[in-house]
Amino acid sequence: MNTEARFQFVCPDCEVTVAVDTAKRTALLAVGCVRCGAPVDDGAFATA
Ligand SMILES: [Zn+2]
Question: Which Pfam families match (predicted)?
Answer without folding.
Answer: DUF7560 (PF24441)
